[in-house]
Structures
1.
Amino acid sequence: MKLNADQIRFFEEQGYLALDGVLEPSDLDPVQAAYEAWIDERARELLADDRIIDLYSDASFDARIGLLAEQCSTILDGMDIMQARLPAMCGLLQCANLLDAVEGLVGSEITCNPIQHIRAKPPDRVNSNGYYVVPWHQDAAVTWAEADDTNIVTCWIAFVDATVENGCMEVLPGVFKLGYLPHHTGGAGTTIRPDVLPEVTPVAVPVKRGGVVFMSRFTPHRSTPNNTDMVRWSIDLRYQPTGLPTGRPFYPEFAVRSSGTPQAINYLSWSQRWQDALAASHGVKAHRV
Ligand SMILES: O=C(O)CCC(=O)C(=O)O
């Protein structure tokens, strides 16, 4: 989906843009199928090890991982993009519908920034330590300062409908204009220091499956508890102009588009570069605080 001038202006003025229908079901379905297979394999391993008693094989995508995590929370480990390294996810990083929109915010030379996650946010009753309830932060805080001048745009993709009830994103509009705000490592993770958090009314940004919340690297955002019985699945990717610091120099970056021409990521090299980088970067401090 290409952005129109009003949408680009809104992003430039507010520091975010929430849009439904950016991705088609055909963009997300292969990734869902790949994760369903991934979950099924792990569930069967846990069953064989007597760590769960019910596979919940017939449960839907937005229910099953929660039902499994309730029995054994380690099912949630190792599923992140660079850990599971599923070919379908490598495809999504280069999704034309997404890049068409990103081009309006980043320009025509586009690189996939290495900060990227898939999140299966379980119902709050399962998420006992609150890990998936992410406090106010700017994404600039989870990069090194070398990337402060890089226009990194976060694309928060709803993998199932994201609602206020299941813990969609909230943003502070316009605040990105203040630039980087000091963060600290509070109990819940890297967060803006309470004394510098501007008093701006938060805006909740629910989006349907395939919708995207685009955010500037300086837009304060958070997610709230999942008060439903289902899992809030999402994928957050970041894109930036090619050739500029990513803020995570120890992780691989991939050019995905140049002057409108796709720069195909080779799956095997993508997977290998991640494996090598993860092995070589143990102990590296990724967040700046
Ligand atoms: O998905 C969430 O709950 C938090 C995501 C987030 O903070 C981010 O993408 O930077």
2.
Amino acid sequence: MPADFQKNMIFPQNADKTTEIEMQDLLRIENLSVVATDKKRTTQIVSEVSFTVRNGETMGIIGESGCGKSITAMSILKLTEPNIHIDKGHIYWGNICLSELSESRLRKICGKEIGMIFQEPMTSLNPVFTIKQQLSAPIRLHLGLSKPDIHQRCIRLMEDVGIKDPEKTLKSYPHELSGGMCQRVAIAIAISCDPQLLIADEPTTALDVTIQAQILGILKNLIRTNQMALLIISHDMGVIASLSENITVMYGGEIVEQNTRDNIIKQSSHPYTKKLIRSAEELYDGADELTLVRGNVPRPGENRTGCRFAPRCDLSTQRCHAEHPPLVQKERGKGTVRCWNCR
Ligand SMILES: Nc1ncnc2c1ncn2[C@@H]1O[C@H](COP(=O)(O)OP(=O)(O)OP(=O)(O)O)[C@@H](O)[C@H]1O
Ligand SMILES: [Mg+2]
């Protein structure tokens, strides 16, 4: 791992903060399994995923496309497609079980206590409303402020996300703004009611490299100054490592490794995690070709007998192809790993 790569990974909240505030479980996902149903069959998409995000903490979920990252995140606020259902497990927001909550009670939490930003800034904004209308809506709904106070808050939020001319931008429609500006606006909307947790699903993937860095910088600042917890999802280890204190690595709909960021970067165990890190290092070093993990992520329901990563793993043995490894505590050090050969 190049020194710069590590140096650039800034801890948004470090030890100072954890001693200042009481660390409480904000979001607790317990053994979450999610299925997709169609007329013919039910397919498991996410299997027994568990993790906790505590007050002011940052958790990153990483994995290639199709690993079940978004389905996991969307299940928290039941924002998945209608054919996707929680099959087993629970999602707790403090003491509230979100997975059993009515739609109307969920909507009260969504946008107020939990903010969300998505990959495609253009599509997350409504093209027929001005930025002011879209930014005011959650503030009016959840905080019930007066018109002048809403305006003041809109201006402050625009400034918080680094928008130079707030008055002009507030009057604009999404199509009048660049992708980067739209993502700033989407972040402003997500944090408009001071949520305790921000969920960011691939917030920079659709943006070019310079804008990506700016958006990551904004997120880092916001979580530090607002003391917000963050659940960030990405397929890019650089993005995840720069924002997350804890990392969950997903493969084929399940967790394959979970640890603190430092332990993942310095002493990851799972061959899949190692490959993700190597790819990120090579990208950072400006290599033309990334270390590709040969083969593809299994489709939901595929490769259920042994380890789901075995067909792509350089270390796989007969046992790996025959028996599905459980997620276990690492024998040395902290964290959990799902691998017969690396504990
Ligand atoms: N509505 C749906 N019905 C059936 N299968 C679905 C549905 N939505 C997603 N899937 C499948 O579930 C799996 C996990 O999807 P998910 O969107 O969570 O992946 P992801 O890890 O977020 O990938 P990406 O990095 O591409 O966003 C994929 O194989 C996807 O094709
Ligand atoms: Mg996704």
